[in-house]
Amino acid sequence: MVIYNMNVLKDKLFLSEETSIVTSDFIGNSNLGELLTLEVTGTSTTFEILVEGILDINSTNWVTLGWISMDNTVGTTIIAKGIYEIVVQNLSKVRVNLSSISNGNISVYGRMCGE
Q1: Which of 110, 87, 83 is nearest to 9 (CA)?
Q2: What is the pairing mode between strands 82-87 and 46-54?
Q3: What letter does residue 77 receive in the DSSP assignment?
Q4: In a structure prediction context, what are the per-residue pLDDT tens digits for the chain, which is 115 residues long?
Q5: Which residues pair with 48 in a beta bridge?
Q6: FRET label pair with 91: which of 17, 51, 66, 67, CA 20 to 30 Å apart?
Q7: How many helices and strands in the chain, by DSSP H and E?
Q8: What is the pTM for the complete model shown?
Q9: Are 86 and 65 a contacting pair, CB within 8 Å?
Q10: Among the listed residues 37, 41, 32, the one whose alpha carbon sits nearest the alpha carbon of residue 51
Q11: Residues 60, 53: Cα–Cα separation, whole Å
């Protein structure tokens, strides 16, 4: 039997009870994390969140990343509270973009892990 240990490389509170459009500070991936797990919570009933990444640390060209939710839904725009996993292998930076929100607040906590 093979047992894998998850190596938690970094934790980050991307957004804390945000009530308006905002882009978070980025989290660096210098330790070559492979997976970012996000937890989206809050009181808002209508919001849109994009998770964005950069390959080259010197670039300013952010691209939208895909995710998979705990119910195996996949997409690029997060519109519901819950847990999401995003592959971040080979990315140098990752951030969260709250592109719209109404009726409440949203918080996003992330944990980057490797093998």
Answers
A1: 110
A2: unpaired
A3: E
A4: 544 455 666 789 999 999 999 999 999 887 778 999 999 999 999 999 999 999 988 889 999 999 999 999 999 999 999 999 999 999 999 999 999 999 999 999 999 987 5
A5: 100
A6: 17
A7: 0, 12
A8: 0.88
A9: yes
A10: 37
A11: 10
